[in-house]
Methionyl-tRNA formyltransferase (Candidatus Caccopulliclostridium gallistercoris), 301 residues
Amino acid sequence: MKIVFLGTSYFSIACLKALLNSKHEVLAVVCQPDKPSGRGNKLTAPPIKTFAEENGLKVYQFNKIRVDGVETLKSLKPDALVVAAYGQILSQEILDIALPINVHGSLLPKYRGASPIQTALINGDTETGITIMKMAFEVDSGDIILQEKLKIEPSDNAETLFEKMGVLGGKLLVKALDLIEEGKATFTPQDNSQATFTKMLTKEGAEIDFNDTSENIVNKVRGYYKNPTAYFIHNGEKIKVFSAESRKNLTKLLNGHIISANSKEGLIIKCLNGAVEIVELQAPNGKRMTAKAYLNGKKFE
């Protein structure tokens, strides 16, 4: 089949790699425009743009695909549009260009929306999966073609789980396209009554609430890993948290109070049902490091 691939993130790259190693032909890649990044606000290309160009693929970047991209996509005359973490909502006019297939990071109808992989971690799920579906105009509501489960390990965070899901998504995508080409694919409607929805993760929502349980705090750190990164405020400064662990504690200190802050015991903070050890952190204008290493040279009152 002739494919136009729409994707932007590292998750998308894994799916595109699987396509390039299959019998299907990738006509072009569509991704989000370059965005300012870093202290100098230098325009930075999405990861998949670099990967696509290195593999000799034509790349299109539309500010609004439903406005700028319709005629271009039609001119390519694809058999299917494959979408994997693209980042823009597609209009019905675009969905009608060719068979629209989506690689979604959950076992639909659970976790429709913008952050299915992160939400599974935040909720403490032990299992997730990939769904390959035919797209419909209503977000993530289309008929299911294939699904496969994936175990979430306690050590997983958003980065590691995205990597695993990308590999699984690529494998299932190729399998689904093969079935479609052979006329053997089945399209199963979703049970909309079972649908749950996820929201875009925000910097405001990334703040840790020490009135919550230690399990929920640890899961939040896992789900918000790197982007936008969980944090708490200490003496007016934002302390980013990349790793945390639950600790039992019977102290009667108020939630949010520091139980220990030294290079031997680490940084341990009281929460609703015990305590949380902040394992890895980053202070403003500082490097990412273990809390024990940070406390070896600085005080944390």
Summary: The chain has nine helices and 17 strands. The radius of gyration is 22 Å.
